[in-house]
Amino acid sequence: MGQDGRRDDPAVVARALVESRFRGDVTTATSLCAPDIVMRIEGSYEAHGREGLANLIEFNHEVATNVRVEIHRIMVSGDTVAMSRTMFLDVDGQAIELGAGAFLTVRDGLVREWIDYLDMSELARALGH
Fold first, then answer.
1. Domain SnoaL-like, which positions (predicted)?
2. What is this structure's pTM?
3. Which domains does the chain have, with CATH numbers?
4. Of 8, 33, 41, 97, whose CB is crowded by the most CB atoms within 10 A?
5. What is the pLDDT of residues 72-119, one digit of tens each?
């Protein structure tokens, strides 16, 4: 979470979740989520609950190295956070750069839903799919 730890600001909560997910910090990421969170990578994957998100983070940590994320823009309207970002990672020695858009729903200081929109084809190729 940000220096001030403000869970009343949806942008702060969303940023902290995304940054902790790509750092591989399962404890922080799951603490920022509602117990029944739904995390969907549109068209390819859906995780349910904190355990599902933890499994996704752990899987990503197993298959990718040198992972980092750059958040470019965050906009908030009510309890909806829109975000654009770029993820950088290495998979089987291949450097991959993935741009993504996301919508996160934040209520009562917790993320309830996270929907990512990105082209997974380069990552799928690197994984041999």
1. 15-114
2. 0.88
3. 10-126 (3.10.450.50)
4. 33
5. 999 999 999 999 999 999 998 889 999 999 999 999 999 999 999 997
